[in-house]
Known about the structure:
This protein is α+β, with helices and mostly antiparallel strands. The chain has one helix at residues 2-167, and strands spanning 172-173, 194-196, 199-203, 206-210, 213-215, 222-225, 228-232, 235-239, 242-245, 268-270, 292-294, 297-300, 305-308, 311-313, 319-322, 325-329, 332-336, 339-342.
Amino acid sequence: MRTWVTAFAVLFGLGTALPAQADRDEESRDLQQAKRRRDEDRARLERERLERERLERERLDRGRQDRERADRERLERERLERERLDRGRQDRERLERERLERDRLERDRPDRERAERERLDRDRLERERLDRERGREAREQERAARDREAAERGREIRAQEARQEVREQAWRLRMAPPAPRTEMRSVAPSPRHIWIRGYWGWQDDRHVWMGGHWEEPPTPGRVWVDARWVNENGEWVFHSGYWEPAAAPPPPPPVAAAVYAESAPAEVNIALGPPPPRRVEVVPRQPGNGYLWIEGDWIWDGRHYQWASGRWEAPRPGWVWAPPQWQPAGAHWRWRPGHWRRR
Length: 343
């Protein structure tokens, strides 16, 4: 019986406890929802407050930037105004300076014109003085040239007379003359002069070299026949040089028949200093088409430098002229003569 009472009590307690627990759970859920809504409201209010603060800061920043921009624009306008005023002042000053300069030039114009006339007069007088001096110098040089020409002509006449006396002599010897010397031609006095080669003469029982010289033909159209020694029956007979009428030139050989031998030029070593500077030569008229002008140069005759005058040479098809060269070689100077070489 007691057991049934106990079971009934348990069942009755459970029946009353279950609704109370459900009420408490419902109340707890309501409290949690209310708390969550309050938290959400507080968070929303906080966000709104932060948004309002951000918008206020942006408004204040825009206001500050607008004020700064307005200040910059005001300062720029003031600067431009100052520059405009400065340009106006500078333009006025420039115009004033130009007006003053024009006034000064206008005042100085008579003085400048007078100074210019005086300068032109001085230049004219100086030119006239120089012209008089040049004319006087030219007359003096012309007179000196005539005196030198007369003296040279006298010496040439005396030399021709002396050479004519030698030419008229007839020598017949048993002793052969030495080999002819290689001479250096000087500059021709004129295009009419002809070079008379030197030769071995006979004086005081010995051979004496008679140097070459320039001589003008007695009449136009004559050529000079060189003096020579001829062996006649064991004796050497001297034949004097003479002038004779120029013969008609033979026809030129065909170009294809021209044959030239190429030989290496002999080099010369000189222990003295370099050769003198080249001379400026007057190039005579070209004797014919295709002729090549060979420039003059200094050569060594064994004792000192001698000037070899330039000359015209006939063309050689297939050949070129290699000019002479002076080249330093240590303490010496090496001379390579000019020569023709094949292309």
